[in-house]
Amino acid sequence: MAGYGDTRQDHLRRLRRIEGQTRGLQRMVDDDKYCIDVLTQVSAVTSALQSFSLSLLEEHLAHCVAEATRNGGPEAQEKIKEASDAIARLVRS
């Protein structure tokens, strides 16, 4: 079971809101809205995705990585490396 299993519906709701914001961006461009207004909305969508990513990462660390480290062995090192790589990708984006 994924670490976010208990909050799956919350995550889906959040992603649907982000999807709605993205469709709003498409409408703004289609309607020839002012560039700065579109950029402001892009910033809001970006922020929403970053917040979602951090929430998911937190759950991954608390569930998947913590469980693997409790069990020890090669899986623990693999999960830590996996989480570290995910954090690096988030920092670069």
Fold topology:
Blueprint: H1 8-30, H2 35-71, H3 74-92
Helix pairs in contact: 1-2, 2-3
Quick structural overview:
With 93 residues, this protein is mainly α.
Would you mind describing this structure in some detail?
With 93 residues, the protein is mainly alpha-helical. The chain contains three helices and no strands. Helices cover 85% and strands 0% of the residues. The chain is elongated.
Rg estimate, integer Å: 17 Å
Q: Order of SSEs, N→C? A: HHH
- State the helicity in percent bands: over 70%
Please state the average pLDDT score. Answer: 93
* Beta-strand proportion: under 5%
Output the number of helix runs: 3
Q: Based on CA inertia axes, which overall geometry fits?
A: elongated
What is the count of β-strands?
Answer: 0
Biggest sheet: strands, sense, closure? none
In terms of quaternary structure, what is this?
single chain
Question: Can you give keywords for this protein?
Answer:
3 helices; 93 residues; 85% helix
